[in-house]
């Protein structure tokens, strides 16, 4: 698939078939994605791929902790709640998703269930936990590098017929992720990518988020009119 077509067609997938994803397929995805650029070719990333029993334990414990009122315990510093234009965009996609799923504004149980799906990594059959070397903290540059790797994973997966969603809710309790996946203390847990074959009958999978026009966020300097 040509790159532009790949980018334009890719979407976040929040409903997956309960179909196993083979290790060979994941290996091929990572083999492609690892060509992502990194600062000075430092390649600061690590990928921990979970499926089966360990993933089930991770999502169960993550969900139980968050439902039980436990505080978020991420390795990385959070920006807190979104405000202003960023909050508006967050609300916009939420409205689209709830509309597609038929979840009414006052339907608290269904809205809570949607939140729990995020904690469960949307019941995807595979989760890729992305980490970086702690020695590089404070890590603005290596965060950027992991973003490049993450997007490479998402595109490489889509090219092979797999959907994914970059899922910060899945690592809300980084301590549990570290324990279950046996991640060394010298690695910082950044995010995870829930992955699997898309369930085309899941209404939210058809939702596409809006993008601002280029005029809203792009400036051209030094170009002739």
Automatic annotation (TrEMBL):
<dbReference type="GO" id="GO:0016491">
    <property type="term" value="F:oxidoreductase activity"/>
</dbReference>
<comment type="similarity">
    <text>Belongs to the nitroreductase family.</text>
</comment>
<protein>
    <submittedName>
        <fullName>Oxidoreductase</fullName>
    </submittedName>
</protein>
<dbReference type="Pfam" id="PF00881">
    <property type="entry name" value="Nitroreductase"/>
</dbReference>
<feature type="domain" description="Nitroreductase">
    <location>
        <begin position="8"/>
        <end position="197"/>
    </location>
</feature>
<dbReference type="InterPro" id="IPR000415">
    <property type="entry name" value="Nitroreductase-like"/>
</dbReference>
<dbReference type="InterPro" id="IPR029479">
    <property type="entry name" value="Nitroreductase"/>
</dbReference>
<keyword id="KW-0560">Oxidoreductase</keyword>
């Amino acid at each position: 698939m040509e790159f532009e077509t790949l980018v334009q067609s890719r979407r976040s997938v929040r409903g997956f078939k309960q179909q196993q994803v083979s290790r060979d397929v994941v290996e091929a995805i990572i083999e492609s994605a690892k060509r992502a650029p990194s600062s000075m070719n430092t390649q600061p990333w690590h990928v921990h791929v979970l499926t089966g029993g360990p993933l089930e334990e991770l999502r169960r414990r993550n969900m139980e902790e968050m439902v039980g009122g436990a505080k978020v315990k991420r390795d990385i510093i959070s920006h807190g709640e979104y405000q202003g234009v960023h909050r508006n965009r967050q609300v916009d996609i939420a409205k689209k998703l709830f509309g597609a799923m038929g979840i009414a504004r006052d339907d608290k149980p269904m809205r809570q269930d949607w939140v729990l799906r995020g904690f469960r990594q949307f019941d995807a059959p595979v989760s890729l936990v992305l980490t970086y070397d702690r020695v590089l903290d404070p890590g603005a540059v290596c965060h950027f590098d992991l973003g490049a790797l993450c997007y490479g994973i998402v595109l490489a997966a889509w090219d092979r017929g797999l959907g994914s969603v970059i899922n910060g809710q899945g690592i809300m309790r980084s301590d549990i992720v570290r324990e279950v996946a046996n991640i060394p203390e010298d690695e910082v847990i950044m995010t995870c990518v829930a992955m699997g074959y898309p369930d085309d009958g899941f209404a939210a999978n058809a939702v596409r988020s809006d993008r601002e026009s280029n005029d809203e966020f792009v400036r051209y300097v030094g170009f002739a009119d």
